[in-house]
Amino acid sequence: MNEPVLRASHLTRIYGSGRTAVRAVDDVSLTIPPGELVIVMGPSGSGKTTLLSMLGGLLRPTSGEVVINGTVITELDEDRLPVVRALEIGFIFQAFNLLDALTVEENILFPARLREGGVAAARPRAKELMSRLGLAHRRCALPRTLSGGEKQRVAIARALINEPKLILADEPTGNLDSRTGQEVLMILHDIARDEGRAVVLVTHDPRVEDMADRILWLEDGHLRDRNEVHHWARDPVCGMKVDEWTATLISEHEGQRYFFCSPRCKARFDAAPGEWTGG
Amino acid sequence: MFLWAWKSLFSQRSTLLGSSLGIAGAFILVLFFDAVFRGESEQIVAYPEHMNPDVWVMQAGVGNMHMASSYIWDWKMDVIAAMPEVERVTPILYFANIVEARGSKLFAFVVGLPSGEHRAGPWEMSAGRRITGKGEAVIPAVLSRITGIGIGDTMRITDHDFRVVGLSRGTYSSANPVIFVTLDDLADILSAEGTYSYLLVDAKEGVSPKQLAEGIRRTVEKVNVLTTEELVANDFGLAMQMGVEIIFMMTMICSALAALIVGFSAYSLVARKQRELAIVKALGGRRGALVGSVVLQAVIVALLGYLLAVVFALLVIPQVPLLVPQLSLVVSIGDILQMGVVALLVAVIGAVIPASLVLRLDPALAYQV
Ligand SMILES: Nc1ncnc2c1ncn2[C@@H]1O[C@H](COP(=O)(O)OP(=O)(O)O)[C@@H](O)[C@H]1O
Ligand SMILES: [Mg+2]
């Protein structure tokens, strides 16, 4: 079997202490081989971002271990982590996180300083990525002149510039309209399939289910495999069956979560929740 | 990384410009005060420098002119004049006192000249004529402009009245405007018949000032003999000494101010760019490089301020005396260079707190939406 790109064992992260402590991620273990596209789903606040930050070496776990390509990154100090972040991992964020003052090409080349040969050696790769992602004509543009889809494609090119074996994407389509989002998801899918990179993708988008090798469900900091549990809910307004995992229309009422099939049902519920909950 | 630091800084032009202007303001203050003191100091030695005899002879124990008093017997002049090395001796009487003109009182150097003798000044006239007899005075043209006393007007030195007959150029500073009267008048005022204050001695061809000074020392007792260079150095040193402490204080205060401005602007840049800095960290930005880029930004801000101040000092300060004639300002290149070093120090000091903020910044911030 292939050496896993990522192995996380018993990851726990507790924010705060004492009475106000929050177990954002609770004893999560995870192994991802090369080329696998893993999707992490879960309600807002379930710890997805916290988990991804720890996998990428941006956040230290309270306990547990992360191993990337054989390196135990949870044991590295602040001086050695940057190289791992730059060379082993490609980050893609919901907010794109481009550097405002730099052009498209400069943004893409930014992580290349730490790799062998530096920025100069990475130029051909940047050029290839720009043409593959349809950015060639925006090479010298500044981020503020780009559309959301273009920004995210620049961010993807930047994540790929050092050819990392692991891509971590936290809701990369969250700020995009659904068509552009679909495009971005397809690109990520191709990256995993064609280039053999492991991709961990956090998303709410139900359309990704088909393209994922594995779907993980995170809830209250615990990780569960999608195939082990079914989470069917009933739309309280129209009575339709709704998948809790992929539902994006959610309302809370008296501590209870309700899932909806359409914005129309949600709006009707929100107007007078008591009418639909029988309370 | 530095490309990013550079471009980020210049993408926030108003912050950059505002901070640089503030720093420039602080540095300009220092340069201006420095120029004032230097100008004053140079003006204080204007008289001996322009007279430029080979040597000055004065009372033993006296080593300068500014605020000094010196008396030597007139026969000593005859002894010196008779020396084979000596071409010419010009005596002056000199005292520093208050003069009254049109109700205002001014501190002045009063130089008494032998009648008809021009060796001891004034060196350049701008209006009127030189003094020819008792009761006449030549005053600085600038003094005339400030006080309104013109040619034909009367001024009073102690209990003697003088009529202004001419205006001289280059003889004004607020610490010592030089007024010329006759030797006889000044001898009256000082009750100093039979004495002189300083002798301006010119050597024969082929005799160096040093040789001349040596010769006079051997021949005449109880006098001090200095070359013009030495006398000027003494007076200039004294004058600068009076200013040095004030300039030092000004420099310290203004440098602290500049460091504060640098620190504040670097801090606000860092605070505003927290998210980008977190992204840079997340993308593998190293601690050294992050600190380096903060320092780079601080250095750019400080140097820009410094350059603005230098341009101001070189272009504007020399124009000030045209508007305000009583100020004589001298910009010193040495002091400007010194300030460049101060600017660099200021930048580094200003960058300390922002740099530590950057080091503590949480890269996970990049994930926040
Ligand atoms: N820096 C933090 N300090 C304290 N609590 C935090 C912090 N970040 C996240 N949390 C808490 O941890 C839990 C998980 O958050 P997060 O990982 O952002 O979830 P998700 O990305 O799934 O929405 C939430 O309850 C959130 O309030
Ligand atoms: Mg999140």
Structure description:
- The complex is a heterodimer of chains A (279) and B (369).
- Chain A is α/β, with parallel strands linked by helices and 279 residues long.
- Chain A has two domains: 6-225, 3-Layer(aba) Sandwich (Rossmann fold); 234-277, no CATH class.
- In chain A, 29% of the residues lie in helices and 26% in strands.
- Chain A has eight helices and 14 strands.
- In chain A, strands 6-7-8-3-9-10 form a six-stranded mixed β-sheet. A four-stranded antiparallel β-sheet of chain A has the order 2-1-4-5, covered by helices on one side. A two-stranded antiparallel ribbon of chain A has the order 11-12.
- The longest helix of chain A is centred in the last third of the chain and has 18 residues, at 178-195.
- The radius of gyration of chain A is 20 Å and the shape is globular.
- The radius of gyration of chain B is 29 Å and the shape is elongated.
- Helices cover 53% and strands 20% of the residues of chain B.
- Chain B has helices at 2-11, 13-44, 46-51, 74-81, 141-147, 183-190, 209-219, 228-272, 274-282, 287-315, 320-323, 333-360; strands at 55-59, 72-73, 86-101, 104-113, 125-128, 136-140, 154-157, 160-168, 178-182, 195-196, 198-203, 223-227.
- Chain B folds into two domains: 2-44 and 243-367, no CATH class; 61-221, no CATH class.
- Chain B has 369 residues and is of the alpha+beta class.
- Chain B contains twelve helices and twelve strands.
- The mean pLDDT of chain B is 88.
- Classes of the chains: A alpha/beta (279), B alpha+beta (369).
- The A-B interface holds A 49, 52-53, 56, 58-59, 78-79, 82-87, 91, 93-95, 97, 99-102, 106, 110-111, 113-114, 158, 170-171, 174-175 and B 1, 3-4, 7-8, 10-11, 275-276, 279-287, 362-364, 366-369.
- The structure holds adenosine-5'-diphosphate and magnesium ion (MG).
- Adenosine-5'-diphosphate is lined by residues 15-16, 22, 24, 42, 44-50 of chain A.
